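tool_call: predict_structure(chain=1)
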Amino acid sequence: MAAGYAEILRTRHAARLLAGTLVGRLPNATAAIAIVLFIRSEGGTYSLAGALAAVYGVANAIGQPLLGRLVDLHGQPRVQLPAALLSALGMALFAFTGPDRLALAYVAVAVAGLFTPPLEGGLRALWPSVLGKEEQVHTAYAMDAIAQEVMFTVGPLLVTGCVALWSEQAALLVVNAVGVLGALSVVASRPSRAWRSAPREAHWLGALRSRGLLALLGAFLFIGMALGSITVAGVSYADGNGGDAVYGWMMAALGLGALVGGSVYGARQWSGVPERRLSVLVALLAVCYWPLTLTPGAVAMTALTALAGVFLAPALACAFIIVDRHAPRGTVTEAFSWLVTTFTVGASLGTAAAGPVVERGGAGWGFAVPGLAGVAALVVLLATARVLVPAGESGVVAGSSENDRNGAVEPGFSAPHQA
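tool_result:
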């Protein structure tokens, strides 16, 4: 299982790009908890902390596809590093301003969120030029999905560690400084400097003119809702079954399930059309959400939470391949950034939807929200199957891009797209 991942990491530049991207994304992964801890340490309310975190999240959702489009147009170094610096400066301004100058605090977190560099989409655009072999690119997508789970587990620990050693303000400054170093490591690498997107057709919709991509985004809006609602329902469950420790174990189990599922999924090559495989994975994801509504004892509930995470990383890895297939020529970074934005918005909607449900019906009904969201994602995929898999593609090898079928060449697989 680990041999495929080890082979990728031994490839020149691969380990550096993966590590740099993960480090560069730490500010985004930890923003919500860092903002909440900082505002509370300054005497602010949870409502204020939540509002500031929400502003950051909305600004981030807006900025990712816009910056992704700029990356496709102007290359990675010209966009990623300036964006990382502006984002870090915005968070530094917030750290020194605090809640005393409220309007400035809102502007600062908005700037930090808006200019968060699209490193996630940028890495996926780089994999073809770094690895060359298509089957290795697909394995890298799975490894990427697994690495995300590690980052979202380690990131909060890093923040709390900085708080314990120094202060909440220091945590904001350190994490964002480290994030800039991660972005710098990526954009200073040869693959990032050499990468160029394919020539693109001028169109104001950019990547969103692809109907297949829109169908995928519609499905992942609901998958994001499922993940966001689990976090809220989990808090409600833990309140009556052991408190914060149980909640921590449940969230860790969710990540562990995704790690295991992604590792198994990425250990083999898959034949057939990835769009149909995604429908199967999302169906399994939805099925695994429903046992959470049973709300058994803490040990059994932790196990069920792990089961609920098993098919998340495989679904994400499969989605990355589909984005690559359906992104219009010259929009690959923007397309990946739209997936990030849609998933983030979905998670926010899931958090908002689960709150009232939990208040009225308790944790059991709260866990019905991810179950319903998973079913909705599957319905979207089935309803748009003709758009996702055009007629006559049943024999297409998984991962061959829409651009290739139209006679264009996918960025990264040939020399003309390199500087």
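agent: Residues 134-165 form the longest helix (32 residues). Proceeding to next step.
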